[in-house]
Amino acid sequence: MRKKHHHKKKPSATKKWSAQLHLWFGLSVGLIVFIVSLSGTLYVFKDEIQNIIRKDAIELKRETIREQPLPIGLLREKVTLELNEKYPLSSVEIPMDKGKSYGFLYYKKGKKGWNYFQEVLINKQVFVNQYTGEILAVYDEKYDVFTILKYIHWSLLLKSDWGKYVVGIPVVLFIVMLITGIVLWWPQNKKARKGRFWFNWKNVKTWKRKNYDLHNVLGFYSSFIALLMAITGIYFTYPYVKNAFNFTLSGSFELPKEKQPKSPDSLLAKNNRVFDLAADETRKIYASSSSFRIPLNGKNKKGKELKNIPVTIYQQDGRYSERNVLIFDKYSGKLLTNRPHQNLSAAEKYSNANYDIHTGSYFGLAGKIIWFIAGLICTSLPVTGFLVWWGKRKKQGKKI
After folding, report:
1. In this structure, which of 4, 224, 243, 395 has its CB flanked by the most CB atoms within 10 Å?
2. CA angle, 47 as apex, 360 and 158 as ends, to 5°?
3. What pLDDT is stored for residue 11 in this prediction?
């Protein structure tokens, strides 16, 4: 009697193409995916770690707290004189909690150079006791481990203008790899489905099979969060991705341009207490917020001259998604415009939230933990994937 031969179902053309794309993209950009995933994963708990390390600089001693802080202008002058830096102070972040110190920032980028260290001219954080004027700590953020990790993740420490594409292109290919990985993972029948959701290593002794399962199973569970991380990442890199989000959410490719309000007070002599007036008004209007930032050098992040004083208010500590903006006349300190978060369009709200979604902080501590685990798995995928390919290569070599 002849034995029946059960032939395996041939893979579809979709699976064949997916396998080829998954393999060649993986081999071509696997190292960059590994570096970007690892640096991003290690960056996730930056705020929590720094709050512990810098506790003495952030939290003020009770006996030094007074009813009213010293004028911002006086504190700025004191920091400027003591540190004697080449560049002017950029901004000050003021916490609503009276028991926390002010954070003055020096930040300046240059146009020359090909890498991060040449591009960023200065990035220093200065913590000051706002009641006594004492400088509590100075941190050179340019060389801080978390800043380095951030710029490895963002541009591999290359100049940001073009370095972001050195990372952005592999991330686009990584998105294709994630999609093709899901296609390859998808079981052809119910019997095969059982072994795809969890490890079944009872009778498995070879490391090759275990490595394959690690790549297969962990890759599947992390792929959906990894897709979210990758898409929110290229949102920063490619304008057309941002435009697609804008159009989907608000029906327009561009975000509304902020109109600069005009004030007759611009003809007046500048009030020396302009920053304090802005700070006092901000505390009244957004008393329940976490902190707010005031620019001190009259320029925005791109180095352009500011016509007024925009004060950015952060609703929650460690999050940027819920932001309110107050605009004050830079001569008189008079409030000109109030732009609360709830009045923004859906596209504007998403634009503010994209960073928090990318890092997981949008979903609180639980989100950060999940993002951290997913990031570790993404870091392992190029390694386990390479070992799968290497194992098959060696096996094929023996057959010849």
Report:
1. 243
2. 80
3. 72
The pLDDT of residue 126 is 98
Angle, CA 164 vertex, CA 235 and CA 117 arms, to 5°? 135
Q: Which of 344, 368, 392 is the last residue of a domain?
A: 344
Provide the terminal-to-terminal Cα distance of the chain, rounded to the nearest Å: 34
Structure tokens at 5: 């031969």
Does some domain include residue 22? yes
For CA atoms 159, 152, 92, 82, the dihedral sign is negative
Contact 52, 45 (CB under 8 A): no
Whole-structure pTM over 0.85, yes or no?
Answer: yes
Inside any domain, residue 6: no
Residue 357 lies in a domain: yes
**pLDDT of amino acid 269:** 66
**Structure-block tokens of residue 328:** 């004050």
- Locate 39 and state its tokens: 């640096």
Residue 73 token pair:
């202008």
| 84 phi, psi to nearest 5 deg | 50, 50
> Are 144 and 277 found together in one domain?
no
Q: Which residues of the chain have pLDDT under 70?
A: 1-9, 188-196, 199, 201-202, 204-205, 263-269, 394-400
| List of residues 6+ apart from 337 with CB closer than 8 A | 261, 325, 326, 327
Return the amino acid letter for 228. Answer: L
pLDDT value of residue 47: 96
Structural domain count, the chain: 2
Chain centroid to CA 177: how far? 22
User: Does any domain span residue 199?
Assistant: yes
278 CB neighbour count, 10 Å cutoff = 25
Q: Residue 72's closest CA among 116, 102, 41?
A: 102
d(CA 223, CA 203): 27
Asked if 383 and 34 touch (Cβ cutoff 8 Å), the reply is yes
**Domain span at residue 314?**
264-344
Q: 112's torsion region: left (phi>0), alpha (psi -120 to 50) or beta? A: beta
Gap between the Cα atoms of 358 and 236, Å rounded: 10
